[in-house]
Design goal:
This protein is of the alpha/beta class. It is built from 21 helices and eleven strands. Helix 8 packs across helix 11, helix 16 crosses helix 20 and helix 16 packs antiparallel against helix 21. The chain is globular and about 80 Å long.
């Protein structure tokens, strides 16, 4: 299926290139779109200033490549893509791209601008031989809300341009606290990336999560509760598919843990309990000169810079709990950091839908090219776009998941949970969608599939089902149809009748006026959300 949609889109671009073979400008634009179509998914890392974007990116890469200081390079959009050999290319706003030298200091990559200022550089392209970059292009963006308006504007113009689709296919958005600026940016990204489809292609990260509990061992538990509250927030719920708490510094330090650091942490873990607790009471106390440990203040300061006080406390606790090697400590600290949960979510929701997300952006840009360069002979191109957009069901699934989080689905609670599961909230392989173990036999999958099809067709054909309910059923049935094709069930799905009910009875009298007003307002918001979703299922999601 992935190959088919990419091949179909490439055929449409080839047909457009043939029509524009004598138009150098249009032909170059189409060439760039063909390149983008065959690239990996573009995943942007965005957020407010000092949210920890570059630190998280290093943790995802497993190597300290992205600069994490406040230098000029952190004010420039920087791409990280796979390359067999390391390369750094700077793209100035004026003039040809420049190949830059590769220098490292203390293991960290050092980026220089060759005498230019951040305002004079469009973007930096870094190629690096990391397997993790074979399936995704990671894009580090300058902080939103910077004191420098130019710095914030670079991120906005890159991810939320006024007259074209977003350059990124999906975004990981970091926040330390929920601000109005976060909501406004995510609204702009949703509208820019998905157009009128209202598809949500963002995941929120509650960053620097270890600081929420003041660096206590249970800090991430506290952060998890805060993340859940953010997930239920009325404004944020419709803009991100999930909020994941992540201790980025811990994740970065753990993934790049050195043997010398493990030895130092083991020495701390071996101290008498009272001495250790007094030493770790705060970051300031830990860095002061002390006679209770043989570790120098320089070593302890380096540990703080690499792991934070939370990471040092956690590492010593894990070592006392039985960890014996640096690799074992690294694995357990990464697991505790929240990074694995974030990466698994990105793989399940964005990587698995990479073909649809890339194709959406490419076809939206192609439509802009067609409008800017009108020509005769484009019927085949328009027909191809029409054919692909009609089949862009993966985007409708993301819209359903977003609606379930923000407004709720207009079905019973059990059916709502089932709809989200079938739409891929936990993953898009057939057993997961059907709620069965990964090793289930084909016959078990077919049996559950038949039951689900019968249930959702019955729900869709109910005379009591309104338009929004039927729209949800259509999406679920289409997902079940895809499962049937994948496992070879061979069962055809016929569309449910488009029945729209005349309405539902209003509330009876006797409610308190203020309470009634609040209920009406919530009901109106849910109704608007469901109407938007119902309209989406009736139109092409790329428009």
């Amino acid at each position: 299926m992935t190959t088919d949609v990419i091949a179909d889109a490439d055929s449409v671009l080839a047909a457009a290139a043939e029509v524009y073979r004598r138009d150098a400008g249009a032909l170059a634009a189409i060439g760039r779109l063909r390149t983008r179509l065959n690239e990996p998914l573009r995943l942007a890392i965005a957020g407010m200033v000092k949210a920890g974007k570059s630190t998280l990116l290093n943790a995802m890469l497993g190597e300290q490549i992205a600069p994490t200081d406040t230098g000029e390079c952190t004010r420039i959009v920087t791409w990280y893509r796979y390359s067999a050999t390391p390369t750094i290319t700077m793209h100035p706003r004026r003039g040809a791209p420049r190949r830059m030298p590769i220098r490292r200091d203390g293991g960290k990559l050092v980026l220089t601008l060759d005498g230019l200022t951040a305002e004079e550089v469009e973007w930096i392209d870094i190629g690096w031989p990391l397997d993790g970059l074979k399936s995704v292009i990671l894009i580090d963006t300058p902080g939103i809300g910077s004191l420098s308006e130019d710095t914030s504007a670079r991120t906005r113009s890159f991810l939320t341009p006024d007259s074209s689709p977003s350059t990124a296919d999906a975004v990981v958005y970091l926040m330390r606290h929920l601000h109005g600026s976060d909501v406004h940016f995510l609204e702009a990204f949703r509208d820019t990336a998905a157009g009128s489809a209202q598809t949500v292609c963002a995941v929120g990260v509650l960053s620097r999560a270890d600081e929420i509990g003041s660096g206590r061992i249970d800090s991430l538990l506290s952060a998890g509760k805060v993340a859940q509250r953010y997930e239920r927030d009325g404004d944020l719920a419709s803009l991100v598919l999930r909020v994941v708490p992540v201790a980025g510094l811990l994740a970065e330090g753990a993934r790049t843990l050195r043997e010398s650091e493990f030895i130092a942490l083991r020495e701390l873990a071996g101290l008498e309990r009272g001495d250790r607790e007094r030493l770790l009471v705060s970051a300031d106390r830990f860095a002061r000169p002390s006679t209770v440990t043989a570790l120098s203040t320089t070593v302890r300061e380096d540990l703080l810079a690499r792991l934070g006080i939370f990471g040092v406390r956690l590492a010593t606790a894990l070592i006392r709990g039985g960890v014996r090697t640096s690799s074992e400590l690294s694995d357990q600290m990464v697991q505790q950091s929240g990074l694995i949960e974030l990466q698994e979510f990105v793989v399940a929701q964005f990587h698995a839908r990479a073909a649809a997300l890339k194709t959406r952006g490419v076809l939206l840009e192609l439509q802009l090219v067609l409008r800017a360069h009108p020509r005769d002979g484009l019927d085949e191109v328009h027909a191809g776009i029409e054919r692909i957009t009609v089949g862009a069901h993966a985007l409708r699934e993301l819209a359903l998941l977003a609606m379930a989080r923000s407004d709720g689905l207009p079905v019973a609670e059990q059916d709502a949970a089932s709809a989200q599961r079938i739409a891929g909230v936990d993953g898009i392989d057939p057993p997961t969608r059907l709620g069965l173990p990964a090793d289930s036999e084909t016959e078990a999958l077919r049996g559950r599939l038949t039951d689900e099809i019968d249930h959702w067709r019955q729900l869709a054909s109910s005379p009591l089902a309104d338009r929004s309910t039927i729209s949800v059923c259509h999406v679920v049935l289409r997902s079940l149809d895809a499962i049937a094709s994948e496992i070879g069930a061979g069962r055809s799905l016929w569309p449910a009748p488009d029945v729209v009910s005349a309405g539902t009875p209003g509330d009876g009298p006797g409610h308190d006026a203020a309470e009634q007003g609040e209920q009406d307002e919530r009901r109106l918001r849910r109704k608007k959300g469901r109407n938007r979703f119902a309209a989406l299922t009736q139109r092409h999601p790329l428009r």
